[in-house]
Amino acid sequence: QLKTEASQALYEEANLYTPGGVHTSIRNVEPHLVFTRAEGAYIYDADGNKYIDYQAAFGPYILGHNHPYVNGKVIEALQRTDLFGNGTTDLEIELAKKICKHVPSAEQVLFCNSGSEATYHAIRLARAVTGRPKLIKFQGCYHGWHDYVARNMLSAWDMVGKRDPGSAGMLEEALDNTLICTYNDLADVEQTLQREEGSVAAIIVEPIPHNIGCILPREGFLAGLKKLCEAHGALLIFDEVITGFRHDIGGFQKVAGVTPDLTTMGKAMANGFPIAAVAGKRKYMERFNTKPGGDVWFAGTYNGHAVGTAAAIATIELMEQEPVHETIFRLGDHVRSEIRGILDRLGIQGVVSGFGSVWTTYFMDFEPKHYAELQHNDAEFYVAYRKKLMEKGIFKLPMNLKRNHISYSHTQADIDYTLEMIETVLKELKSSYKQGTEAGKA
Ligand code: PMP
């Protein structure tokens, strides 16, 4: 049994001052933990429980928590500089140069503070460039909290052909102008573009929809999107907020060999420090009014703060100098093949998916093709699985439709222990719990 008394007491206090006691909706899950320390692959709560962390705060920690090299560079930067309301900084120039060097679509780049800001700017730019109102996004993909990407994977209504209520308070127009297609279905996208001929500004896509775990693009899907965009005069936006820097220093676009018009990045870019970026073709980026004559508003008091820029430079530098991706990819491959073996040995229905440092176990008996099929996922089984793993000191995301992240700080020993515990826990669950209570319902 997990000791949570100290966390519970603090959580009650948090609720007095903050609605729900947490500062992001998705953080409100049981057990309600209060975290007090993070280091490398480990996180610690108020009761002194230590966990090997695979949630990685939804993905930023590619090097590990509180990485000494990154933190050192941030401290060094703060000893001489911080934030200015005019001009630019040496750190901003250095970081922009690195991103344009590594990310194929980045001829120019602008910095902001969160992934939501980056997608907002990219979508508004696409609307300005094309003079069109509509946006195509994909079922299950998440691009932030704002009205421009009103529909997201958290809603049961995020199904093709249905209208998502989005969030209370959203503009009806934003919902009306967001069209949903099925990931990996080029025919669906083509039909939508034909039906809406002349009104679609952009297609935005997570090149791998990690907000529903890991569904890989079918051969030719991403290249097909690019062709369709060219044929119908829309811009292609890769939302690489999760995939950028995690799957390659050049993002998943480098791996896929498909170069979008615009790219959004965040998360792994700065190993947990708050910074994000929108990048793309110069001819589009120069529409932003950071350049005199530009007519697309771009601003932010904290844009380019020394903390985020120094952290991003350091994170990318480490990727340039050390075998970061090679190491985390090797561990990822190992985890996936071992979990596959465990499921087979125990006769548990499941699909093990992933890419590089990311893995997902869907407790279902067939390869999911899109979000709708994930309704077959055995959510109840996953909740029990996650809870038991927490008791063994392993921390996973609260939802089965999400992913696990390996960082450069995870050791082979961490991974071996994790796999051992996964087998132990699944063995216990198999004898005490009947899988399939949800399977086949949808
Ligand atoms: N795009 C993607 C693909 C994301 O996963 C997220 C956040 N999970 C966002 C955009 C929004 O980023 P942020 O939470 O930093 O605003």
TrEMBL record:
Record bears the keyword Mitochondrion: no
InterPro entries on file: Aminotrans_3, Aminotrans_3_PPA_site, PyrdxlP-dep_Trfase, PyrdxlP-dep_Trfase_major, PyrdxlP-dep_Trfase_small
Cofactor: pyridoxal 5'-phosphate
SUPFAM superfamilies for the chain: PLP-dependent transferases
Gene3D superfamilies in the cross-refs: Aspartate Aminotransferase, domain 1, Type I PLP-dependent aspartate aminotransferase-like (Major domain)
Pfam families per record: Aminotran_3
GO molecular function: transaminase activity
The keyword Phosphoprotein is assigned to this record: no
Record key words, sorted: Aminotransferase, Pyridoxal phosphate, Transferase
Similarity comment: family membership: Belongs to the class-III pyridoxal-phosphate-dependent aminotransferase family.
NCBIfam families found in the cross-reference section: PRK00062.1
UniProt name for this protein: Aspartate aminotransferase family protein
Organism: Paenibacillus residui
